[in-house]
Design goal:
The chain is of the alpha+beta class. 23% of the residues lie in helices and 29% in strands. The chain is built from four helices and seven strands. The protein has a seven-stranded mixed beta sheet. It starts with 9 loop residues before the first strand and ends in an 11-residue tail after the last strand. The model has no long low-confidence stretch (mean pLDDT 93). The structure holds coenzyme A. Coenzyme A binds next to strand 4, helix 3 and helix 4.
Length: 162
């Protein structure tokens, strides 16, 4: 009997009362610990900085990751502050698909000409993933991380010429 392998459509869903604990319990690899602030800390932060948008990443019905983005109050640009895929679900393409989806989501927001991200200098997985979806590496941020920028090609609804 062949069973359906299941729907692994990626969706990005706001963190709420019903899913925050699961998001807080997602794990990364021990060697990745220096690359990411714990999700429970990010969720706590979002309670005091309402511009932060913490979200769960689902593949079908399974929560596989977490991200947090915001429009930064200093530079008025969109920033992806947190991005992770649980260790059990890494290397299956979910990270790349979720980032593509996030780019699409942010591109549909008003006044979103670019998306910024920053990552540890030793984080080659993040660097490769972001490069593969169109982020261009920039300088080193004052806090020591490498920055990268995705420039949104055109405003939503604007004609895209073939
Ligand atoms: C970075 C991270 C989100 C990638 O998620 P993922 O779902 O495993 O990534 P994908 O399967 O979509 O891989 C996309 C590309 O990323 C790169 N990549 C992912 N994991 C990698 C690894 N362990 N080593 C080297 N490259 C890696 C590869 O280029 C990969 O493309 P390929 O599979 O065609 O080679 C995940 O490793 C993670 O959560 N890391 C810990 C938290 C973190 O560092 N977050 C980023 C903070 S800015």
């Amino acid at each position: 009997v062949t069973e359906r392998s299941g729907d692994d459509t990626i969706t990005i869903v706001p963190i709420d009362k019903g899913n925050w604990e699961r998001a807080a319990n997602l794990q990364i690899m021990p060697e990745q610990a220096g690359f990411l602030t714990p999700n429970v800390f990010s969720i706590a932060e979002s309670k005091f900085y309402p511009e932060l948008n913490p979200c769960a990443i689902y593949a079908g019905d399974t929560m596989v990751g977490f991200l947090m983005y915001a429009r930064d109050r200093d530079d008025d640009q969109y920033w992806v502050y947190r991005f992770m895929i649980d260790r059990r679900y890494q290397r299956r393409g979910f990270g790349r698909r979720a980032m593509l989806q996030l780019i699409e989501m942010i591109s549909a927001l008003p006044d979103a000409p670019e998306i910024n991200i920053a990552y540890d200098l030793g984080n080659t997985a993040a660097a490769e993933l972001y490069k593969s979806v169109g982020f261009i590496e920039g300088g080193i941020a004052p806090w020591g991380e490498r920055t990268a920028k995705y420039t949104i090609p055109s405003a939503p609804g604007e004609a895209r010429l073939p």
